[in-house]
Design brief:
alpha/beta, three-stranded parallel beta sheet, two-stranded antiparallel ribbon, 5 helices, 5 strands, 40% helix, globular
Length: 141
């Protein structure tokens, strides 16, 4: 509700373009949750988006949950699948500013596949081409 209110208040200033940040891989998040987020961002006609995989940073509560076996980060394959699904439900004109986050190695606990940014981006591109997926394919007005 707060996010929607912020969008509404910002839209009265037509020169301001809105960029949303979203995280894929939150604890207990389902594919349906990911799709619902994409659909809502599409409905709101967000101009651009930055997509990040949830990653575990040293010294955080999430690191504690990981060490206790209560949270496991997505594999690269899972992230690629969910990100492709997310992109398919976005508005086709939404600008994608980022698909993977940067984190200095000395702070990153997991997933280490994030350090191979180019490999992950190529794998996502290849996956989407092989499956005939593209941004906005499942967008519903």
């Amino acid at each position: 509700e707060d996010f929607q209110e912020a969008i509404t208040k910002t839209r009265v200033h037509p020169k301001i373009k809105i960029c949303a940040h979203t995280i894929i891989g939150l604890p207990k998040e389902t594919k349906e949750d990911v799709v619902a987020t994409a659909k809502e961002l599409a409905r709101l006609r967000i101009e651009s988006i930055k997509i990040h995989p949830l990653h575990i940073i040293k010294g955080t509560k999430l690191e504690e949950l990981f060490k206790q076996g209560e949270y496991y980060p997505l594999t690269a394959t899972e992230y690629i699948d969910l990100t492709a699904e997310f992109l398919e439900h976005l508005h086709p004109e939404t600008v994608i500013q980022r698909i993977i986050a940067d984190c200095p190695r000395e702070f990153l606990v997991e997933p280490l596949w994030m350090m191979k940014r180019g490999t992950v981006l190529k794998a996502l591109d290849d996956y989407m081409r092989e499956k005939s997926k593209f941004q906005g394919r499942l967008y519903n007005t």
